Amino acid sequence: MAALGDFQSDFQVNLSAAKRALGIDFELKEKQLEALESLYNGNDTIVVVPTGFGKSLIFQLLPWLMQGKFKRADPMIVIIATPLNSIMHDQVQSLAKRGVSACYLDITGSSGNTYDYKR
């Protein structure tokens, strides 16, 4: 069994790699770090913070964070549910600008885009 120090070290190494992959060059907020560490540790996690706090950054970093944890060649797939089509659209566009493949499906099933994921 890995020691707590090893876990924290692995988490920090993988977090640094995830930040580099997305071009994040600033320090994360404490609540963002807590959420990422909780998810990294396999916990169900709910993040309740104000609008504009940086919730999106948590799920944007997660595929690369978990890629490092599980020693995968490609980033992991993350599924996000949001209540508004406009939020989904904005997130997909934001990720595309960073070179991240993303898609969304709205309630009609017709106006979203799809992504054919191939390994």
Automatic annotation (TrEMBL):
Keyword set, alphabetical order: ATP-binding, Helicase, Hydrolase, Nucleotide-binding
Stated family: Belongs to the helicase family. RecQ subfamily.
Superkingdom, natural source: Eukaryota
A Pfam family: DEAD
InterPro entries reported in the protein's UniProt record: DEAD/DEAH_box_helicase_dom (IPR011545), P-loop_NTPase (IPR027417)
Sequence ranges assigned to domain DEAD/DEAH-box helicase in this UniProt record: 31-101
GO cellular component: chromosome; cytoplasm; nucleus
Protein known as: ATP-dependent DNA helicase Q-like 3
Biological process, per Gene Ontology: double-strand break repair via homologous recombination
Any one Gene Ontology molecular-function term assigned to this protein's record: ATP binding
